[in-house]
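Shipment paperwork, digital attachment
Item: protein structure file
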Amino acid sequence: MAKNLEHIMQNLSQERQKKIEVRTQELMIEEMTLRDIRKARKSPEKKLSLPSNGLRRLKND
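Attachment content:
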């Protein structure tokens, strides 16, 4: 029997669901930042502009 993501998430504790949500957001920011870097590398005339939250994340790593 196949389980969908909603069903699996509903069976997790609230704490675990929150951790998953936080990590999801971190991965989305990282992916967007990498996409911006790749785009800037292809267009040397464009300045590299990172979202402020993505830049903060890069500085903390």
